[in-house]
């Protein structure tokens, strides 16, 4: 009886591993260099092209109208939140919480 339970447990484990392996291969397949599907290959080529164009964190193919709109929006946000003009509004703010000195409360025994 114990051997039968152990063998069932092993078979269940093998089935789970096989399913997980299939899922992992399906997830990793698009990242392979050669895709079996032409549409998948086209997608990979476009992703690689976009990666090259977006190097340095800049916008991809910006036109003057979009750059002007971005500048106007950043100026509006800076004015709305009281920026001094030197603060980078695209950077996450840094918070500093200094330790406050607290006076201890002493209780006298009555």
From TrEMBL:
* GO MF term set: proton transmembrane transporter activity
Q: Which UniProt keywords apply?
A: CF(0), Hydrogen ion transport, Ion transport, Membrane, Mitochondrion, Mitochondrion inner membrane, Transport
- Main localization category: mitochondrion
The record's subcellular locations are:
Mitochondrion; Mitochondrion inner membrane
* Record keyword Ion transport present: yes
GO CC annotation: mitochondrial inner membrane; proton-transporting ATP synthase complex
Any keyword Repeat?
no
Q: Which InterPro entries match?
A: ATP_synth_f6_mt (IPR008387), ATP_synth_f6_sf_mt (IPR036204)
Single GO biological process annotation from the record? proton motive force-driven ATP synthesis
Reported function: Mitochondrial membrane ATP synthase (F(1)F(0) ATP synthase or Complex V) produces ATP from ADP in the presence of a proton gradient across the membrane which is generated by electron transport complexes of the respiratory chain.
Q: Which family does it belong to?
A: Belongs to the eukaryotic ATPase subunit F6 family.
Its name, as the record gives it, is: ATP synthase-coupling factor 6, mitochondrial
What species is given as this protein's source?
Drosophila navojoa
């Amino acid at each position: 009886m114990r051997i039968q339970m152990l063998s069932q447990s092993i078979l269940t484990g093998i089935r789970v591993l096989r399913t997980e392996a299939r899922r992992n291969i399906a997830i990793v397949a698009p990242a392979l260099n050669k895709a079996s599907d032409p549409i998948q290959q086209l997608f990979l080529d476009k992703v690689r092209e976009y990666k090259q164009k977006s190097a340095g964190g800049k916008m991809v193919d910006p036109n003057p109208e979009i750059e002007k709109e971005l500048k106007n929006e950043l100026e509006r946000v800076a004015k709305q939140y009281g920026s001094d003009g030197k603060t980078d509004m695209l950077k996450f703010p840094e918070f500093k919480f200094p330790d406050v000195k607290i006076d201890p409360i002493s209780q006298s025994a009555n």
